[in-house]
């Protein structure tokens, strides 16, 4: 039992989680804006809804969005934003990209 004057100690798990939360890019703010829009650096937003112009990372997510937001309209597969903009598709490499959640920035 700890007394009033004794500070409680933090576990290694708590400290590691705190450091991870502080140093890992979660995709918010200005740094994540380019990643969310998908126009630069091969971001995650690859598809755009033709009705409301919202972006989605894959066809399944776009289909879910369409069923919930536009139930009366027929579903048409949207075009890939990267191909429509003339940008090359993001290359897959063994080295992780900076600025994406789970990056190695520490």
TrEMBL record:
Q: Which gene encodes it?
A: A03p008050.1_BraROA
PANTHER family xrefs: GEO09665P1-RELATED, PROTEIN METHYLENE BLUE SENSITIVITY 2
Keyword Signal annotated:
no
Q: Where in the cell is it found?
A: Cytoplasm; Nucleus
Sorted alphabetically, the keyword list is: Cytoplasm, Nucleus
**Residue stretches of biased makeup (Basic and acidic residues):** 36-47, 73-82
Instruction: Identify this protein by name.
Output: C2H2-type domain-containing protein
Q: Where is this region: Disordered?
A: 1-47, 64-106
Q: Where is the composition biased (Basic residues)?
A: 1-11
User: From which source organism is this entry?
Assistant: Brassica rapa subsp. trilocularis
């Amino acid at each position: 039992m700890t007394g009033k004057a004794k500070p409680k100690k933090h576990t290694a798990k708590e400290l590691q989680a705190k450091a991870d939360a502080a140093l890992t890019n979660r995709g918010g703010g200005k740094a994540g804006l380019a990643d969310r829009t998908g126009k630069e650096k091969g971001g995650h937003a690859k598809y755009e809804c033709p009705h409301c112009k919202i972006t989605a990372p894959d066809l399944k997510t776009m289909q879910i969005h369409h069923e919930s937001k536009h139930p009366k309209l027929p579903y048409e597969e949207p075009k890939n934003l990267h191909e429509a903009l003339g940008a090359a598709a993001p290359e897959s490499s063994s080295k992780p990209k900076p600025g994406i959640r789970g990056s190695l920035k520490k």
